Model the fold of this input.
Amino acid sequence: METNEMDQIDLCFTSATQLARLIQRREISPVELMEAVFSRIERLQPQINAFSTVCTDKALEASRKAESEIVRGKSVGPLHGIPFSVKDLLWTKGIRTTFGSYIFENHIPDEDAPCVQRLKEAGGILIGKTTTPEFGHKAITDSPLFGITRNPWNLDRTPGGSSGGAAALVAAGLGPLAIGTDGGGSIRIPASCSGIVGLKPTLGRIPHPQSFDVFGTLAHIGPMTRTVADAALMFEVMAGPEVTDPYSYGLPEETYGSSVTGEVGESLKGRKIAWSPTLGNTEVDSEVLKLTEGAVQVFAEFGCELEEARPHFDLPEQHYLVIFHSSLAARLGPYLERFGDRIDPSLLDAIERGSQYSAVDLQRAHNLRTQFFQTVQQFFNRFNLLITPTMSAPALPVTHNALEPVAINGKIAGSMRGAWYPYTYPFNMAGNPAISIPCAWTRENLPVGLQIVGPWLAEGSVLQAAAAFELARPWAGRRPPL
Done:
């Protein structure tokens, strides 16, 4: 079956769940899909710079094998022939993993991260590695090694970070599925900035044994997609115990398809939902506030008990920074003498700050993280879900210096972390599942995200609420003006 250019573009914006059905019914072939995706990558990669490595030859070869298996009637997995990408912080066997840094410019792992291996076993085909700021240290995606990644909705804006390449490519139709990582909002921030779905599961639900510190980690792995159903499918494939990740032990293996199908809005009736327009921050962009306040009323229409409330905690930014910066200093300090002049200045600043903390400072931060975790969990004794804006303002300019404060409503609001994404990093400290979904677009056609947070292990409820909102306010048909 031959497709013209418009057919190819439509194919590139088709959901993974629908593509899987089309492939299994032999209405499209994996080769046809892969050729459409790489044709679009060839045209748009120079504009948005979403990939650090593109695996054209290997992916096309894999798609031919996938097509042959379908023709032979072989039993196939749920993602058979579906393209997926991997953030350049996660190991990929035989394909370089650079962490966006000259330090590991030529690093080629000899094994896949578990999440990558599981997607392959389900039939998914790796198409490339996606750009990240160096070691994922900031919320704007640029790096000394690969340069600036741009937002498909406005090339002068950032797609967010640190999973910015993943978000940009999904938004631009360069692949339906992307694996992101989230150590302080790095899935949800770019999902919000780029108008896609980004799920940060409960800590350990998707194992991350290559994390530098598996016991004190803030890092989560999660799906980045255009639809909630795709996120649920991808999450279900990647989740599950792994012997080398202690947080994954004993967690239940569940299915999530029923959470995102049928009359999902009906099933939310009577749920107690907290709405928090701020989370300790003082400024929210006036248009973002208006749009998110309007969006959250959808849950009242579902029959939810909606109450403005938030957990009673002081934002844990300083304790978060002690853990985050000291980890960077311990990991990267030994490379400074050789690579210091080729490291991002904002990463150098983080390493320097981290090297000044004492062991007592670090232990105090972990102690306070425990207290913070307990406060958040007690909050969910009162409420089923918490909803917030994902970000206090839309995507920043790509030229914004991560060391400089951000301005909101015409006034200096504070640091990027404390003022621009105060809603995301607390739930890395607490480990709760949280999703960002598109809820509106600004007058400048920039996406605005809504964050839904649940108790530990409540991904089913979080996905259910996200799917209900998607059904009421669909967004997947909206495409960036590329």
About this structure: DSSP finds 16 helices and 15 strands in the chain. The chain has one domain: 5-472. Residues 5-472 form a domain with the Amidase signature (AS) enzymes fold (CATH 3.90.1300.10). The two ends are 26 Å apart (CA to CA).
